[in-house]
Amino acid sequence: xxxxxxxxxxxxxxxxxxxxxxxxxxxxxxxxxxxxxxxxxxxxxxxxxxxxxxxxxxxxxxxxxxxxxxxxxxxxxxxxxxxxxxxxxxxxxxxxxxxxxxxxxxxxxxxxxxxxxxxxxxxxxxxxxxxxxxxxxxxxxxxxxxxxxxxxxxxxxxxxxxxxxxxxxxxxxxxxxxxxxxxxxxxxxxxxxxxxxxxxxxxxxxxxxxxxxxxxxxxxxxxxxxxxxxxxxxxxxxxxxxxxxxxxxxxxxxxxxxxxxxxxxxxxxxxxxxxxxx
Amino acid sequence: xxxxxxxxxxxxxxxxxxxxxxxxxxxxxxxxxxxxxxxxxxxxxxxxxxxxxxxxxxxxxxxxxxxxxxxxxxxxxxxxxxxxxxxxxxxxxxxxxxxxxxxxxxxxxxxxxxxxxxxxxxxxxxxxxxxxxxxxxxxxxxxxxxxxxxxxxxxxxxxxxxxxxxxxxxxxxxxxxxxxxxxxxxxxxxxxxxxxxxxxxxxxxxxxxxxxxxxxxxxxxxxxxxxxxxxxxxxxxxxxxxxxxxxxxxxxxxxxxxxxxxxxxxxxxxxxxxxxxx
DNA sequence: AATGGTGTTCGACGATGCCGAAAGGTTCGC
DNA sequence: GCGAACCTTTCGGCATCGTCGAACACCATT
Lengths: 278, 278
Known about the structure:
2 copies of one chain form a homodimer.
Chain A: H1 3-16, H2 24-31, H3 35-47, E1 51-53, E2 60-62, H4 65-76, H5 78-94, E3 97-104, E4 107-114, E5 129-131, H6 136-142, H7 147-154, H8 169-182, E6 185-188, E7 195-203, E8 209-218, H9 219-222, E9 223-225, E10 240-243, H10 245-262, H11 271-277
Antiparallel strand pairs in A: 1-2, 3-4, 3-8, 4-5, 6-7, 7-8, 9-10
Chain B binds a DNA duplex through helix 3.
């Protein structure tokens, strides 16, 4: 690990999270370095347009270069490229917005976003990040990670985003087990009040999870009350819980199609299973 | 300039331009460093998710972290934030796509993109970069740069993108002078065959150019033949050259509105001029 | 099996980046 | 208007840290 590069990367991370504009002193505090050290690093990053300094206030922010890099990443992403075709179909079939995401540390990053096919104004969420534990995409990915990485994910900060976010290891383990059982992750207003998600994992070569694809939309559109209980005299006790079956199937179909395009299931234990399913 | 950080940044730049996946050897060649040096830098960058290594081929590509940073940059960009409101209006009024861009080295970076208001499928160009000399946005920005930076821009590689791209310093100087004269930059199929652009500069505090806003669309929609020549017996000789007046005015209005929101024209020589114009 | 090409590890040399202290500059409060 | 307190920036010596040659392990071809 090269020290100065590591420090530069941490500076970028600090600038990327938190307030958009920071002074040298504030950055130095957050990364725990001396002021002149940070200054030198910033100067170098600035030279490459990765950070920019406000000429008035002297404060620093991320520079235009990072968007350019981000765009290159998206353009070169095989996962994204293979998704384009199938997500379009999925959005049309489901009538809801579709997200494709991949894991980066403890968060998922939205790589592709197909708007809900109606004429309402929607904001593009490509590049947005969500804590993995608070969205269906994240559950779908983490559930199929090797156990070591799964443990690391469970050890990360499990902050609640809404009142419904599951934040205990036990609850998340149960959720992940269920995802593995039914090959589908469901999230009900754990990231945003009112919004739910349905997602399925995407596998790349050697059947390692490469990401996930899923629907994001109003909870009452995506979910239906859980299967009729014996005691129907308490109808208000039933709460929306289960994905509408046709949506769940559509998501799984899309995930399998993308996985196949990515070349999943060659020379791996899971290979034959996936082939049989497709 | 911190050496190792500088080298790391150059590695990122190499990964961002050119083929999406490169091996250590190839990267080492392109940045002119020894293989182990590059390896160490890559390992560090990988640790921060700024690059990712394909587990199969061992080749490296940009990592998910860069999109995350790019997104943060866009979220914190004051230019972009102030543009949202006015670009929407401009797109509706003009019936064409609107871009907001800023300069990064010799290229402009698209910070905001409002789709042409019809139902055709369009791809989002946010994050895309275009050589400054090949687009109206770039002309609008460079024309209002301090002379030193302007000279630097003119000294960059002026590669042609289409058969119509102006690539000589003299031609570009004339173009920039005209931009300054009429406060409007026009480009006719210099970046993409069939597409034209009309752009105006956006000024930030102290009236330094912060970026540009403009229309991008089919040349025959944005431009009209230059003012009627005396000899009308050669109608085919006339070629579309001049922006449709109402579009030009709409672009300038939008640029001025954004500049005002950014706080342009306080305590600077150009301040009174801009105030008088608004 | 041999070969050329990978990506990776090791270690010693010496250049290189780190940080304490002090210097410009600006913005407050008085 | 003045002084003080903050900011960002510069300087220089010490020791650390990064660099690169050579050798390693590995894979796909030949």
